[in-house]
Amino acid sequence: MRVLILAAGLGKRMKSKYPKVIHPILGKPMINWVIDTAKNFGETAVVLGHGAEYIKDVIQDDIKTFYQEKQLGTAHAVMCAYDFIDPDDNFLILYGDVPFITIETLKSLEKTHVKGNKDVTILTAILDNPRGYGRILRGEKIRIVEDKDATDEIAKIREINTGIYVFNGRFLIENIKKIKNNNAQKEYYLTDILLFANNIGTVTVEDTFEISGINNRVQLAYVEKEIRKRINEKLMLEGVRIIDPENTYIDVSVKIGKDTVVYPMTFIEGDTTIGEDCVIGPMTRIKDSTIGNNVKIIRSEVEKSVIDNNVSVGPFSRLREGTHLSLNVKIGNFVETKKTFVGNNSKAQHLSYLGDTTIGNNVNIGAGTITCNYDGRKKHPTFIADNAFIGSNSSLVAPVRIGANSIVGAGSVITRDVPDNALALGRARQINKEGWVKHKREDNKNANSEK
């Protein structure tokens, strides 16, 4: 089966300079929700129009695109992709702003279509409030009556047309160009193709949330809240404890192991995997990262990082891109890392910056330590070997290597390599001038009295 996604609309009600279908839902552009579902059924194409260049930037390279220069209705959009229709294959129509249609529902639609050898099979829904939708009128032949054309009696019908169809490819090719625009809007409506169909099938979607369309930011917030609720419920049923689901934000692509606890105001985004028996949050953001088992991350930011088992992070830590924390590492409050590897059992507990750094096993990074990795033009690496001890308030000026089992004295500025088993002191000798403050105050007092 081939799949065509219609995504050429202006989306005026979003009040945005960007196309409606690229607005993200739980970290993924709206249209990519539809594309990911569509690709389960066969070759997929998208009809673009307004803001086509933005949409092309977010969709996969293997998706074919067609362009609808003027938005003249749904049938006209299909006509723009006429060359994509295969007469020997069925043809599924989806929409870029209806992102939550499920694989299961579409499989049911396809099965009904194939089994009955239909010209077209329509996905319908039963709504308590069908206003605005075309009504399904059943008789000797199924018809769709648009809401604006419905009589009072037809308007009472609750079964509506979702706009999602499976067509026989040959039927579609032979009849799509027969549709006329004899209406006030001068548009070509895909529903008019039913006039040429003799064998029409229907499938009614069970969960009407699946056919929720998004036209404005209020609807966007509503559907995002609903899908977030479903994601959290699924995770909880799989063994994750989420303390406050209404205030926990987890993207659909995230994987979390059982017996992990997620506290409120936590955001877990993108391509993130979290293991078992972890404690995450509160007030934590994790994005595109891999987290092992028995990890604690409290009030911290983690992005594009790898954290192995039994690691503790936070509170108020920031792990930036390229960070890798090995077994039993401790990263404490107000510590920032970037492109840094930290070996087993090492720790940086307080107020440090570690950038472009490789740290061995069993290393202690004292409070206030900074790796000075940037010289104003380029970055330089720092290497700290196993069992080294870096005293508090030290500055390691890269490129520099601190040897195994060495000690850097507190308050040092290290500009040269430190050998193994050495003590490095990079500070001036302390000088105490006894009585200096008393004499200085007396001199100031005398100077003021002479004025």
TrEMBL record:
Amino acids binding acetyl-CoA: A367, N373, Y374, S392, A410, R427
Q: Which cofactor does it need?
A: Mg(2+)
Segment Linker: which positions? 218-238
List ligand-binding residues for Mg(2+).
D97, N215
Q: Subcellular location, in the record's words?
A: Cytoplasm
Q: Which residues form the MobA-like NTP transferase domain?
A: 3-124
Residue ranges for the region (N-acetyltransferase) are 239-451
Q: How does it assemble?
A: Homotrimer.
- What's the stated role of this polypeptide? Catalyzes the last two sequential reactions in the de novo biosynthetic pathway for UDP-N-acetylglucosamine (UDP-GlcNAc). The C-terminal domain catalyzes the transfer of acetyl group from acetyl coenzyme A to glucosamine-1-phosphate (GlcN-1-P) to produce N-acetylglucosamine-1-phosphate (GlcNAc-1-P), which is converted into UDP-GlcNAc by the transfer of uridine 5-monophosphate (from uridine 5-triphosphate), a reaction catalyzed by the N-terminal domain.
Q: Which family does it belong to?
A: In the C-terminal section; belongs to the transferase hexapeptide repeat family. In the N-terminal section; belongs to the N-acetylglucosamine-1-phosphate uridyltransferase family.
Alphabetical list of PANTHER family matching this protein: BIFUNCTIONAL PROTEIN GLMU, NUCLEOTIDYL TRANSFERASE
Q: What is this protein called?
A: Bifunctional protein GlmU
The organism's taxonomy opens as:
Bacteria, Thermotogati, Thermotogota, Thermotogae, Thermotogales
**Recorded name of the encoding gene:** glmU
